[in-house]
Amino acid sequence: SPSRITNFGAGPSALPVSVLEEAAKGLLNFQGTGIGIAEISHRSSEFTAFVRNVEALIRRQLRVPPTHAVLFTQGGGSAQFSAVVMNMLARYRLLHPDVPTGDVTMDYVVTGSWSKKAAEEAERLGGGQVRIVTDARKHSVSGKAFDNIPPHSAYAFSKDPALIYYCENETVDGVEFSHDVASSSSFPYHLLPENTLSPLVADYSSSFMCRPIPRLGDHAIIYAGAQKNVGPAGLTILIVRQDCIVDVDAAVRCGAAPVPITLSYKTLFDSKSLYNTPSVLALYMTGLVLERMETMGGMEYYEALNKKKAEAVYEVVKVGSSRGVFKPKVKEGSESWMNVVFDVIGDGAEKRFLDGAAQRGMSGLKGHRSVGGIRVSLYNAITEEQTQQLVQYCHEFIGQET
Ligand code: PMP
């Protein structure tokens, strides 16, 4: 569509045009029902069948094992900061009714502003002791920047924590765990406490379905808001291992805190994610995106595409860095594929960069307000051509500035 510009925003973010066109039709008439998708009952057979298909699309593409449920809810990643704590504390309480609350630990791997926020929410809720397993700032050159994934030697997990939390991709800071197991920036699975059922929780909000999820079956909970890679805002996707779907009311009788009914994973599971009115439109659009993704070739296709896109942008940042125009913000080996962050050096240079990009129809490049600089978000819907357009512009800009 010629009226559209390229949106490199961090979320909500670009969606495929073909999906938007299809969704526009569905808004008027959903699957020939004569009723628009935003108007149809969430209990209608057409819509419930659609939801089951969204679930199947996720299961197939991520190869979710039968040990895990795929659930849908609302409230975004932020609501899950709370929900994971409450559900995992309830689970722990049922497993260990005699452990005093003060001895219950929750391990947080802090690699950026989102995992920091998650740890703060766990602290707020109480019910256990929050332990920071590692704080990436301590491993930065400045001692205060989230610019790296700490080396494996920096982790100290508790013996039997109620949960172990990490954020796979830090959207603001642009750091991400490497999927190369040989890399020191990979998640240290081999150091996890040897529970038969690991309480490992991962925030995949900004990297969900951009590539396969390593060790998916070893996770207790994986969650993501849809609004980066797979759909509009309003839908939260959960992958929860069956043993983490617990009777939260029975846990209360063992001394756990009550869990609001809409935050309980058991509520979502028992109702097949339809306890209350879901985000019907967001689920619909996400379904359309996921269908398209499967047609394109699924996770293997997106992994190859996203790798190529990220490498192209990091390459030009490197060129700009060698010419004193750009400065990468993230340590080599810890770079995110989804959010590439760098500074533009010199007086007024950042503004010149952003203005030039805007003139060429590229937006959403301003870094998060807490850290500044430039952030290029390369979610699934950003094409190789759009990425090349940005890379080309970066080369031009480097030329102009030197
Ligand atoms: N975690 C991460 C990694 C995120 O990027 C975000 C949103 N940008 C959140 C959590 C919070 O998600 P939401 O806005 O959907 O609550």
Automatic annotation (TrEMBL):
GO terms for cellular component: cytoplasm. One of its GO terms (molecular function) is O-phospho-L-serine:2-oxoglutarate aminotransferase activity. InterPro entries: Aminotrans_V_dom, Pser_aminoTfrase, PyrdxlP-dep_Trfase, PyrdxlP-dep_Trfase_major, PyrdxlP-dep_Trfase_small. It holds the Pfam family Aminotran_5. It catalyses: 4-(phosphooxy)-L-threonine + 2-oxoglutarate = (R)-3-hydroxy-2-oxo-4-phosphooxybutanoate + L-glutamate; O-phospho-L-serine + 2-oxoglutarate = 3-phosphooxypyruvate + L-glutamate. It is an enzyme of class 2 (transferase). GO terms for biological process: L-serine biosynthetic process. Its EC number is 2.6.1.52. Belongs to the class-V pyridoxal-phosphate-dependent aminotransferase family. SerC subfamily. This is phosphoserine transaminase. The lineage of its organism: Eukaryota, Fungi, Dikarya, Basidiomycota, Agaricomycotina.
